[in-house]
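User: Structure tokens for this complex, please. No commentary.
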Amino acid sequence: MKIDRKEVLRYMRAGDDQRFFPLIDEVSQYLLKNFVPAKSIGYFDIEHTQNGVILSGTGVEFKGNLIKRRLTGATKIALVAATLGIRTENYMKTLAGDMLKSVIADAAMTAMLESFLDDLEEEIKEAHNGNTVSARFSAGYGDFDISSQKDIIGLLNAEKLLGVYIKESFMLYPNKSVTAVIGIGGGGESSSKCGDCSQKSCCGYKTEEAL
Amino acid sequence: MKLLDYIKNNRLYLDGAMGSRLIEMGFDTNNAPYLNISHPEALRAIHREYLESGSRLIYTNTFSANSRKIKDKKLLKEIISAGVENAVEEAKPFGAYVGYSAGPTGELLEPFSRLTYEEAYECFREQAEIIRYLPLDCVVIETVSDLAELKIAYLAFREHTNFPVFCGMTFSEGGRSFTGADIAAFSLTASGLGADAVGINCSLGADKALALAKELKKYASVPVFIKPNAGLPVFRNGKTEYDTDSETFSGYMAEIAKEGISMLGGCCGTNPEYIRKTVEKTKDIPFTVFNNAPDALCSPQGVTELNSFKVIGERLNPTGKPLLKKAIAEDDYDYISALCIEQAGDGADILDVNAGIAGIDEGEKLAGIIKRVQNVVPLPLQIDTVKAGALEKALRALAGIGIVNSVNAERESLDKVLPLVKKHGAYVVGLCLNENGIPEDAEGRLRLAEVIVKAAEEYGIDKRRVLIDPLTLAASVNAENPGITLKAIRLIKEKLCVRTVIGLSNVSFGLPDREIVNAQFYKMALEAGLDFAIINPKLKPKEDEFALRLLLGKDEDCAAYIKSREKAEKETGAISGSVTPSECILKGIKSGALEAVKLAANQSNYGEVIERDIIGALNKLGEDYEKGKAFLPQLIAGSDAAKIMLDYIREKYIPVGESGGETVIMATVKGDIHDIGKNIVKAVLSNYGYNVIDIGKDAHTEDIIKAIDKYKPSFVGLSALMTTTLDNMKSSVRKIKEFYPEIIVAVGGAVVTPDFAKECGADIYAKDARDAVSKFEALRKKKK
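Assistant:
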């Protein structure tokens, strides 16, 4: 896990203004020293249906074209919930008087959590050697409804194990938390990070590859 | 034998998991409490299995039986009563004990979320009332992750039952809970409150629990229990699998037993086999009843041992500070937190919290501040009030061990304050004064100190917890005053063997350059043996020839000192500034901002500095941003620099209430917990002179309406980041416009579009902070 300065700048939407680097480094060091991400993982056999997939043994169904495309031929999925923890919320409060540092910390925490998930995705790939594994994606992407996030949180007991709560609006609290789906087996497309996004024409976060 | 007697002489075996056993039997754990009524035989079978495997204290199946989860109060009572009966009936033939299991409310407590301390207390009080007369042996509070919630639950069961109360929390590796509570702080706090046992359960496997057990016992003055999981869970096709088998688990439990831990059991993933093997492997290992009560204070986030001199930051005290007064009155916790963080950075070990302003409920304000500050700053707090009612409210909100400032030698004060100090395990500052005032000499103050120490001991408060303040009077009033205080410090320490504390800045009252005198007096007090100083933590002990003479009583009318300061002032040349205020803003230089504004304000009038230099540069930066020459972070960096300069000018030159700015209420709408964007808008608007009242994130419409009634704003600004909260934004805007059509409502945030703004009835769509300022300013000028 690392915090890439350039990723932080991208999440900040700060162009390539390198004068922020010293402060980004300072904040990043603090984050890496003080926060340990926590995760919960589950594996589910899936049954393909007309609308999407059903998770074996749970009665939970994920619907939509995105799900169908990304999980084409997959036999299993891994569900992941990860968080930097509620202490990040307190940390942000300590920065309340310093907007620049707040913006940097917010972006750096996003970069940190994404890097943690990159590593996790890699581990899952290694553990399923020989099987194709799809790039991770999340509820709220494309037509994969955000409400599925509630099922994922429940299936992974994330409230109790990670202290991650889901609001009625399907937002996660603490803010720096994510859930993700990874398809295992099959030949589902592992598209670019932006490919399915409805905001791709007007987004300021686009990755270089997607531009 | 009573349970408390049993645990003095025996290792006590607890039970294992209830939930995962129920899942194995095919039940849905979401309905676990209801099974007490619908399937009592299943629960009794589980209790029996554990009793047969060696458990001597079994927990009732009531972990989530509370009114936050079961709304029907009558049903709740039936479920709890049945749960108790199931366990009690099974325990009888074994001569075993039954503990009432009280889990957390299941909701995050304020300030993390909306559940108030009062609602949480009510949730536990109801349970306490139900079980009060049932044949239980103790209450076990378990799996709590917020230390504040633990204290609330503890007080509810302590105040409404007569059972022993065991306190348990759940921690991750490294000894922190989800909310950031530190395991040592938990142990110290629960022991200080008078819990009958402290312990941990859940979250971690037995392998990881060993390190936590070591930390826990270091701060415990009561028996300790450890009830870990069978390793870490993995979810497969709807089933939860744990990675540690009973053989390995019990091996780790034997290691934990060797630490002297006297109560052992299991949590998620364990079953009777785990308990049986644990009993087998640990029954011959001796145990300890801990009595480690370290001399320490704590916040939820960490312990501060009182093994050396400590600085108590005095700046959170509104006396003579109009901006802080305003912040307290308006519940501006950002301002208050920033002040605390600054003091921590300057070297404070403890923070004094004072909310003494006229016309407010001091207890409410203190409690409000404590709830926020204790989660933000990892320092213990000192509650500064003379009102017993306010003190009690504040202590109930304090999660940790703090200092009460203060009690005095009057009987009434002693009898009101000391019981509260005892109940909350606090330390207390005792002032050497009584109904006759402050004794003139050091011996008189010693006598009053003795009264206080004796009274504290009568209330069962160890004299280590009493800090005596011999009081400091102004040197300018009587040249002997500093000497009396120093002599009293020496006498009190020598004769009573208690520690001393003073608020030393009073010594320089009425003198110029007070910090020079304070720094000298600080040095002398340290030499006299002072243990705690209540000061601005920026102050460091420092010699000054003339201050020394004055404090030794060798400077009549302080004349020589005053003359020395006049001379020093003349010698200080002009400050040399290398950057201008506008450069600071345009280049985002925060470090030079304060010097730049001081120089500029010296050379021209402050109004000009604001308008020409600061607002001028902010406008220029805003234009660059609009043209794409600067990005948002550059705008923010400039804004931060501007804030430093404007704060300086406002603090120094502008009386509060005369800023003349329009009031804006800002909030992130219900359901939305993102607030960075909103905070940026707030910072930028404040720089332009708007009086921004921020009511935070996840703000419900009624919160916004309440704030409008209170502050009568000209503008309301609402933010939403997610599409799922747009409906809430719409309903908030409609409600506001329905009641207050004259108020200008602005909306913004990542997902808000001009069309949506129009559709929901908002007056302004603001793309970003810069856009908001431009549009607000245009409207303001039009109004004029």
